[in-house]
Design brief:
single chain, alpha/beta, Spore Coat Polysaccharide Biosynthesis Protein SpsA, Chain A, two-stranded antiparallel ribbon, 8 helices
Length: 247
């Protein structure tokens, strides 16, 4: 099978997590490029005296997107973090998901994210992605709702997480042009700008949707020491993780 996507995984100074991700990718016959990430000595962070953690993972994501845009010949880029369980049928499902992506003319599709409840289209902001009902593809009228092979929802701005997502080349360029280090520096003094964070920028722009059930579930092994945050992440895992489905 010829793939029209490349996968990139951000793994910052955590050998255990990287080895676990390498194992999952190998078991599922998935090829991925690992990126070591951005530390606080990077001049983009060091010279601006900012919150190094937030800027580190945001720049890490943007560097992976830059690599995809500059060096990949593939149509789509899939980007993930190193603390996820992956759907056991990932390799088999992705081609159909990409076809759905094209039918909906998406810019970004969330494949993994944080949510502590089961999604229903009846929930405000999580309506089924049905804003395009009939499109013409190669002179054939297609009803998108009937032809989609998976379930997709809109999502509100207060849905968080960039555990795994897919972008087009065009949208990758848009993100790189608009959310660069110059934007990050401006955001320090301009409270009208969204914070320089992947949750506020990369996952929130363009024609967007999420897939449900998700293809990547956070392992929730990262503890920040904040009871509310740690409980939230654990709840998200408990609601969505099924060991018979994810590895």
């Amino acid at each position: 099978m010829i793939n029209n996507y490349d996968i990139y995984c951000l793994s910052f100074k955590n050998l255990k997590r990287r080895e676990e991700m390498e194992y999952r990718f190998k078991e599922l016959d998935i090829k991925s490029s690992f990126y070591d990430g951005v530390d606080s000595n990077d001049p983009r962070i060091f010279n601006n005296n900012n919150n190094s953690i937030v800027w580190s993972y945001t720049l890490g994501h943007l560097d992976m997107i830059q690599n995809f845009y500059d060096n990949s010949e593939k149509e789509f880029g899939i980007f993930c973090e190193d603390d996820i369980f992956i759907h056991k049928d990932f390799y088999k499902l992705i081609p159909n998901i990409i076809e759905d992506f094209k039918l909906m003319e998406l810019d970004v599709l969330l494949l993994g994210y944080l949510i502590p409840f089961k999604i229903s289209s009846e929930y405000n902001g999580f309506e089924l992605k049905n804003n395009i009902n009939n499109v013409n593809i190669n002179n054939v009228n297609v009803n998108v709702n009937n032809d989609l092979k998976y379930i997709y929802h809109n999502y509100p701005n207060d849905l968080w997480g960039a555990q795994m997502y897919m972008l087009t080349k065009k949208h990758a360029k848009y993100l790189l042009d608009n959310y660069n280090i110059e934007y990050a520096i401006r955001s320090l003094n301009d409270n009208t700008l969204q914070p320089f964070s992947s949750d506020w920028t990369i996952t929130k722009e363009g024609n967007r949707a999420l897939i449900y059930p998700m293809l990547a579930v956070e392992t929730a092994d990262k503890k920040c020491g904040h009871y509310g945050q740690d409980t939230f992440h654990e709840n998200c895992k408990n609601v969505n993780y099924d060991p018979s489905i994810y590895i």
